[in-house]
Write a structure and sequence with these properties.
about 375 residues; binds pyridoxal-5'-phosphate; three-stranded antiparallel beta sheet; alpha/beta; globular; 12 helices
């Protein structure tokens, strides 16, 4: 079996240290806030080259809280990519703001040109998603944002450790958000998320909002929510964080292998821009017989995924957006996307099986 994701194998590689750490937290009974959360926030903030890091309950909350902290005009429009997970757009609506979809470029990241076309006098912010682990063209997006006084929230849920011109994502816009959902490149043993920023005021607002609007224990300056990274998850993430760079290297090794070996295959390979370090949360190819290839690979014990089966404007939840986005690239490619197995769990034999599985089906067709 070639697994799409293998969290069990990762756990076994960390078992001794992880088990000890988990029981240490339980013995300490310091479950909410406290030393383990502080230590992880410090370590992850520093890893992201951001001045401030706030742990929150999950990546969706991170987006919602970050948007809230920016204090955007009520009812204003926020531009999000049409190809993302629904959390990106949900956070906008949850804040009483209006979702506006923009298209992606051929490399799947948010198109600065499309963003420009979607701007109206009511636009207040852009949420570039570093989709599949590849940073968006932040300089181009920043230029557009500056021209129109827009805020930038980076959705880094799939891109922990990715670099844009040598700089870490999460430190490039006004505020960055992360998810530690178990299957992400840095995953907790449950839900978790974080917000990063270099702006002290935004950091303070996020921290208070995520914790009932409180500063001192019962001094609530405003109403907020309860969305905290708990100590167990923080401790688990602290054990994993020192391994993230080597896991990224392994993912890049798998990607390099696929890119070279599948070069001649009759599929469209993902495009990597020169100025980035892609961290390959997902390796997404395009093929017109997607469903057949998926089945063919599964019959050989190779698991694949589809991210995402429908572009956001095609979901029932956004049916009122569909008409204005039918010409989008994002709306036409969703039926041909296929995510290959990706992760540090893949050995050489497994990589080779994936490559052969794709090549022999494609040969069989000619
Ligand atoms: C996973 C993900 C989220 C949401 O994170 P959760 O922790 O599951 O709430 C947001 N945006 C993107 C792009 C994601 O992939």
């Amino acid at each position: 079996m070639v697994k799409f994701l293998d969290l069990h194998k990762q756990y076994l590689s960390l078992k001794e240290e992880m088990d000890a750490k988990i029981f240490e937290v339980i013995r300490s009974t310091s479950f909410i806030g406290g030393e383990y959360v502080n230590a992880f926030e410090e370590a992850f903030g520093s890893y992201c080259e951001a001045g401030f890091c706030i742990g929150v309950g999950n990546g969706t909350d991170a987006l919602q809280i970050a948007l809230w902290a920016l204090d955007l005009p009520k009812g204003s429009e926020v531009i999000v990519p049409a190809n993302s997970f629904i959390a990106t757009s949900e956070a906008v609506t949850l804040n009483g703001l209006k979702v506006v979809f923009a298209d992606c470029d051929a490399d799947y990241t948010l198109s600065p040109k499309s963003v420009k076309e979607m701007i109206t006098p009511d636009t207040s912010a852009i949420i570039p998603v570093h989709l599949y682990g590849q940073p968006c063209d932040i300089d181009a997006l920043k230029k557009v944002a500056q021209e129109h006084s827009l805020k930038i929230i980076e959705d880094c849920a799939q891109a922990h450790g990715a670099l844009y011109k040598g700089k870490k994502v999460g430190s490039l816009g006004d505020v960055g958000t992360f998810s530690f959902y178990p299957g992400k490149n840095l995953g907790a043993y449950g839900d978790g998320g974080a917000i990063t920023t270099n702006d002290e005021k935004i950091a303070q607002r996020c921290r208070m909002y995520a914790n009932h609007g409180r500063s001192e224990k019962y001094d609530h300056r405003f109403e907020g929510v309860n969305s905290r990274l708990d100590a167990l998850q923080a401790a688990i993430l602290s054990v994993k964080l020192p391994h993230l760079e080597s896991w990224i290297d392994a993912r890049r090794g798998v990607a390099e292998y696929y890119l070279q070996r599948l070069d001649k295959a009759d599929i469209t390979l993902p495009k990597v821009r020169k100025e980035v370090r892609h961290v390959w949360h997902l390796f997404v190819i395009q093929t017109h017989d997607r469903d057949r290839l998926k089945e063919h690979l599964l019959a050989q014990g190779i698991q694949t995924g589809v991210h995402y089966p429908l572009a956001l404007p095609k979901l029932h939840a956004y049916r009122h957006h569909e008409k204005s986005t039918t010409h989008f690239r994002a709306s036409s490619i969703d039926s041909i996307l296929l995510s290959l197995p990706m992760g540090e769990h893949l050995g050489y034999e497994e990589r080779e099986r994936v490559v052969e599985g794709i090549c022999d089906m494609k040969k069989g067709m000619n």
